[in-house]
Write a structure and sequence with these properties.
The complex is a heterodimer. Chain A is α+β, with helices and mostly antiparallel strands. Chain A contains eight helices and 21 strands. Chain A has helices spanning 52-60, 102-112, 117-130, 146-158, 176-193, 204-210, 228-233, 238-243, and strands at residues 12-23, 26-37, 41-45, 67-72, 75-76, 87-90, 164-168, 196-201, 213-218, 221-226, 248-251, 253-255, 258-261, 266-268, 278-281, 287-289, 297-307, 311-318, 323-329, 341-345, 352-354. In chain B, helix 11 packs antiparallel against helix 12 (248-275). The two termini of chain B are 32 Å apart. The chains are: A alpha+beta, B mainly alpha.
């Protein structure tokens, strides 16, 4: 690893130890361990049924774990009710109170905390200004656009100055143009407030783009946790490799220092430890070449070409029968036409050995 | 257009036959003069039926007493209906059906049968007094039946589902995330109820209140069979005027007065609904 020297990681803010939760016959969380650090932007990534939303609801206090401990700065909060937890949540539906004005919505938590009406109103106005909604205080939620409602929900949680803010699919309800901008704004707010943000998402691009660290959840367990680049480049298993950015995953077995994959019809050379069950190869690390032989090359026929702007996605049926996705950069010239026979090559450094 | 008229025809016929026509007859009787013949009135443009209503405080008192009892019944029903409706709405869908059935179960037995059951419980030789005396807690039977408490118990029991059902429907539509958001922001459950659930279900609560209040205001059977003798509610007075005094114009005028009094809160409710 050539990771730059880093300062010691910040202290743990929240620690989940062996959290299990069962709903009827389904095990939503299976002895899950996780650590959230002070002031980081953390993404809980996973498909539906992975347990990511259950974990968020347990941290917020809406569900009680069947087993395990939840420590906030070392204090066990497992039995603390939601109204007494110094944790706030932004709901996927935003859950704005429809019978209150925007200002009343934002001041709601402050009023419950015992702030006088005027002090609460002043701080609510401050929070609304922070999310760019100055002067919107008198409106009702139904008079706002989706993006504005999202900001009100954000202001309503942030005004409580939580050390841990939970965000349930915060960008899911926004249209594509707004998502990118709102994502950057979320990060800016996270830095400005210094709070730790824990975001639940099913969108790997969103998780990789926004988070300092990502945990990929599968079947109630953490499949892998790490910085986005780390888990993108070094997936720990076939599942992680497939979930993150649709890498090519080829199964096979270790043979003489390399990795033989009959389904790809290729031999992979590189850092292949004993016990490797599959290899991952990123679409953008594969080149189309005029001629090549030996390991780290393959032959196939172009099945489909999709233009994507700065590159084209080329689907190749390999000699071994498996399908391969490759990203053909526009700078490298026109992609091969459908039906063309192609020779592919990649560097040994691009081969990622998967132990599971 | 003709299809539309055809579909609406039965509804209009129903309204004409069973709402407009009886109301017209009622007005005609109220304006008529009492007579000793059969029917006991003579059609005329006299104000005979309405005059006693203004002159004799007895009728106004009966109207006010009925409104007071109906208001108390409706308020008690709402007080009980909220926890019931919340409990049913939060239950798992399978159990919800069971709980709703349990709520409606008394409706499957006859109305008089249920009043009879209450009498059996509350009378001097009834189950409650029998149990109290059997345990040696009381020496003589407690006067339970023929009290305002007995009357209210019977009324609340009879009309409770009318308050629960609209509340239940409203609570089912209420996004549970709203309550969670309130609790997440520091509200204890009762505060969350007062600040979120209550204001958002207020129209349903008003509907439930009126659904109980309106029939309770004209209720005759329960005050007659379970209430104290001095409870001269308008329903009882109506009965007496029609069947004992055979003064149909006064009875019809009284019925009209009750109708008008009950239309006022209904209009208010519609006004509030329209403004939302």
């Amino acid at each position: 690893m050539r990771a730059p020297a880093e300062a010691a990681p910040p202290a743990a803010l929240l620690r989940a130890e062996g959290i299990s939760k069962r709903f009827g016959a389904t095990l939503a969380l299976d002895a899950l361990d996780l650590e959230i650090r002070q002031g980081e932007f953390f993404a809980l990534l996973g498909g539906s049924g992975s347990g990511k939303s259950t974990l968020l609801r347990i941290i917020a206090g809406f569900e009680a774990p069947d087993a395990g401990r939840l420590l906030l700065e070392g204090r066990d909060i497992g039995t603390t009710p939601p109204w007494a937890r110094p944790v706030n949540m932004m709901f996927q539906s935003y859950a704005l109170f429809p019978h209150m004005s925007v200002a009343e919505n934002v001041a709601y938590g402050l009023r419950r905390a015992g702030l006088a009406r005027r002090a609460a109103a002043a701080r609510a106005a401050e929070a609304l200004a922070m999310v760019g909604l100055e002067g919107f205080g008198a409106r009702r939620p139904h008079q706002l656009s989706g993006g504005q409602r999202q900001r009100v929900a954000l202001a309503r949680s942030l005004v409580m100055r939580p050390r841990l803010l939970l965000l349930d699919e915060p960008l899911a309800a926004l249209d594509a143009g707004l998502r990118e901008r709102t994502g950057f704004e979320l990060r800016a707010l996270q830095r400005a407030t210094g709070a730790a943000f824990v975001m639940v998402t099913h969108d790997q691009e969103e998780a990789l783009a926004l988070a300092d660290r990502v945990a990929l959840l599968d079947a109630g367990r953490v499949a892998q946790v790490g910085a986005p680049r780390e888990i993108y480049e070094r997936p720990a298993s076939r599942l992680v490799a497939r979930f993150l950015g649709a890498a090519n995953v080829f199964e096979g077995r270790v043979a003489g220092g390399g990795f033989d994959s009959p389904e790809a019809g290729a031999t992979f050379a590189g850092a292949i430890p004993e016990g490797t069950v599959a290899v991952a190869l990123r679409p953008e690390r594969i080149r189309i070449v005029a001629a090549a032989e030996g390991p780290n090359t393959a032959r196939g026929v172009v099945e489909e070409v999709a233009f994507r702007g700065d590159d084209s996605l080329v689907l190749v049926r390999l000699a071994g029968g498996a399908r391969l996705r490759l990203a053909h950069a526009e700078a490298a010239g026109a992609p091969p036409p459908r039906g063309a026979a192609v020779i592919l090559a990649w560097d040994a450094a691009a081969v990622v050995a998967l132990p599971a | 257009m003709r299809g539309r008229a055809l579909v609406l025809a039965p509804a209009w016929a129903w309204l004409l036959l069973f709402v407009a026509a009886p109301a017209g007859i009622l007005v005609a009787i109220a304006l008529a003069e009492p007579d000793s013949g059969l029917p006991p009135f003579r059609l005329a443009w006299s104000g005979a039926g309405f005059a006693p209503l203004v002159e004799d405080a007895y009728y106004l008192d009966a109207l006010l007493a009925a409104l007071r009892v109906a208001g108390m019944t409706a308020a008690l029903c709402l007080l009980l209906a909220y926890p019931l409706a919340i409990g049913i709405a939060r239950a798992a869908p399978g159990r919800r059906v069971l709980l709703l059935a349990a709520l409606m179960l008394p409706f499957w037995t006859g109305f008089l049968l249920r009043v009879g059951a209450w009498i059996g419980l509350l009378r001097d030789q009834g189950w409650i007094n029998g149990a109290l005396q059997g345990l040696g807690l009381t020496a003589a039977p407690l006067p339970l039946l023929y009290t305002e408490g007995a009357m209210l118990a019977g009324m609340v029991h009879a009309y409770l589902p009318f308050a629960v059902l609209p509340l239940f429907a409203a609570l089912l539509r209420l996004d549970p995330a709203l309550i969670e958001a309130a609790e997440d922001l520091g509200a204890r459950p009762f505060t969350a109820f007062l600040t979120v659930t209550l204001p958002l279900t207020a129209p349903a609560a008003a509907a439930g209140f009126l659904l109980v209040f309106i029939p309770a205001a004209g209720e005759f059977v329960i005050p007659e069979l379970m209430g104290p003798p001095e409870a001269q509610l308008v329903g009882r007075v109506l009965w007496q005027e029609f069947f004992q005094n055979r003064d149909w114009p006064v009875a019809a005028a009284l019925a009209l007065a009750l109708l008008v009094l009950l239309l006022a809160p209904l209009r208010l409710f519609q006004r509030l609904e329209a403004r939302r």
